[in-house]
Amino acid sequence: MRLIEQKRKDSIYLYFLAKGERKYLGKPDKINHEKAKEALYLLDTQITEYKSCRNKIEKLLHGKHEIEFKDSKYKMVFFDMDGVLFEKPWHESISRKVAISTWDLLFKRLGQYDIHEALKRNFENGLYGDDVDNYVKWKEATCNTLKIIPLDEKTFQEVTDSRILSRGAKEVFQILKKSNIKTAIITGSFYRLAQKAKKELDEVNHIRAHCQLFFDDDGLLKSWELSKTDYKDKIKIMEELALKEGIVDKNGYPDLNQCVYIGDDVNDLEAFGAVGLAIAFNAHKNIVKKAADIIIIGGDLTEILPPLFDFKKDKEKISFYVSKDVKDSWLNFAKTKDYSTLPDFIIKSIEFYIEEESSSLKT
Ligand SMILES: [Mg+2]
User: Fold this and answer.
1) Residue 308 to residues 76, 279, 313, 325: CA-CA distances in angstroms?
2) Distance 175 CA to ligand 1 centre (A)
3) Cα(210) to centroid of ligand 1, in Å?
4) 292: CA distance to ligand 1 center in Å?
């Protein structure tokens, strides 16, 4: 499988080669979403096949036992959606802001990202009061803005379609189902996206989403329904669902100690505090990482399995060659800096050394 860039005149054309076929993916700035998704799907299938083949050979080589997923002390896992089940829309870099939600993405697509940022700032500055459900007022204002812009159904569908499941998500849900662990998605995002997750993951027991949009006959946003499924309200939903699944303490109350919550942002903090195991997945903010019991960086959702089933996975070691004269300063750099992903950390390390190098050349 290969990605090929073909240059013709002033344009670049992208092709994906797989299984003897050549798929045209479009140009770098104008990707064909359907074809790109097909390519990703093919790659994901390959990754799964590769993993199972690798496990088999490793077993033959070392006589290792395959990991058995059983006997977890947890009975239910709650997932946030944006940034956890679906990859973050785009990644952190020095010049760009991090989009963390489908709301961000929708406004960006409509060319109104600044308006959304302003609404978010209003919320953070307390314009919508300090009740636990103040976020509903914020989203009410946000939906009103979408209606004025206006948002059309085709754009909304395209943005929903563009979201890609995190690596390993399907595998995780299959394993949880096999192990008889219940699953739920609780999200401050869109109902339609949660439906897509449910469809693609196949094995989700419950979904609770914040915003359902309705469009008129001309395809323009007409109205919306906002459910209380975010911030502190995530706890209420977890309790309701745990009770439904019979996960209760000896007095018959929902027992969230037997539950796990996986989130990536500040709207997950309350939920973190209520469960037996809180996992920060691909979180960028320090406050989120600090509140979790376990931090997972990188985008592979299967990394949540070891803590859930209490086994230690062999970590792949990554070695850096650092010359003797800079070893101390590099170690110091590594210890004092906090980056959310390994590629990010490597890029920042290189930038750091280029700066050091150029300043020493100057002197
Ligand atoms: Mg999130």
Assistant:
1) 10, 10, 12, 42
2) 22
3) 12
4) 14
CA of 299 to the centre of ligand 1 (A): 13
| pLDDT tens digits, one per residue of 288-318 | 999 999 999 878 899 999 899 887 655 455 5
Q: Is 152 helix (H, G, I), strand (E, B) or coil?
A: strand
Nearest to 183 by CA among 45, 81, 313: 81
Which residues have a Cβ under 8 Å from the Cβ of 213 and sit 6 or more positions away? 143, 146, 151, 156, 190, 191, 192, 221, 223, 224
Q: What is the pTM of this model?
A: 0.71
CATH architecture of 76-309: 3-Layer(aba) Sandwich (3.40)
Task: Specify the DSSP element, H or E, that contains 243.
Answer: helix 233-244
Ion ligand 1 — residues with CB under 5 Å? Answer: 80, 82-83, 264-265
Three-state SS for 95-117 is CCCCCCCHHHHHHHHCCCHHHHH
Phi-psi region of 263 (alpha: psi -120 to 50; beta: other; left: phi over 0): beta
